[in-house]
Design goal:
heterodimer, A: mainly beta, four-stranded antiparallel β-sheet, globular, B: mainly beta, 11 strands, about 0% helix
Chain lengths: ~120, ~110
């Protein structure tokens, strides 16, 4: 059974960079035809897709975040990562990593990241 | 960008009664639509894809229908474990993949 687990700091200061990693177990990132992506959910609000990447393909970014986002894959460690720069309080959210092609089938449990000084 | 709109925002239904949730796309998306269920403190769970195909392990009381711009998720007999927020998501002409703002289902 595929499992995903987010990790990273739970508190980030304004203007700094949010960095999260998603560890994948039960399946290999580089033997898959699926995308590996990030979705976030501000407190009490809906879901917003952030970015996705295929293990050997170009990344895709939400246009609303593209100037601040980087997604990358580490096939040797079977994980993928998200960097979001110049964060503000509006970036406070639960960040989920997920495997998807069209629809999002497997999700991590989520990591709450709070942006505050 | 394709915008997904849910109605209503909150749906109050008596236990055992039918719940009907709607999702509208801002342009035609064929049947490129998924539904998710999210309970408090949990990640979303895939319920339906292809507008009408139940994901693995999803009870038969969940039915998806629709195509083009109008979609419906029906819960035939609402159970306590079905109380949650439900989201639709399109996967037509991505990126971006976008979600609706959700419908909260509660007991009347």
């Amino acid at each position: 059974q595929l499992q995903l687990q987010e990790s990273g700091p739970g508190l980030v200061k304004p203007s700094e960079t949010l960095s999260l990693s998603c560890s994948v177990s039960g399946g290999s990132i580089n033997r898959s035809r699926f995308y590996w992506g990030w979705v976030r959910q501000p407190p009490g609000r809906g879901l917003e897709w952030i970015a996705s990447i295929y293990y050997n393909g170009p990344p895709y970014y939400n246009p609303s975040l593209e100037s601040r986002v980087t997604i990358s894959v580490d096939t040797s460690d079977n994980n993928f990562s998200l960097n979001l720069s110049s964060v503000t309080a509006a970036d406070t959210a639960v960040y989920y990593c997920a495997r998807h092609f069209d629809y999002f089938e497997y999700w991590g449990q989520g990591a709450l990241v709070t942006v505050s000084s | 960008e394709i915008v997904m709109t849910h109605s209503p925002a909150t749906l109050s239904v008596s236990p055992g009664e039918r719940a009907t949730l709607s999702c509208r796309a801002s342009q035609s998306i064929s049947n490129d639509l998924a539904w998710y269920q999210q309970k408090p403190g949990q990640a979303p769970r895939l319920l339906i894809y292809g507008a009408s195909t139940r994901a693995t392990g999803i009870p038969a009381r969940f039915t998806g229908s629709g195509s083009g711009t109008e979609f419906t998720l029906t819960i035939s007999s609402l159970q306590s474990e079905d109380l949650a927020v439900y989201y639709c998501q399109h996967y037509h002409n991505w990126p971006p993949w976008t979600f609706g703002q959700g419908t909260k289902v509660e007991f009347k």
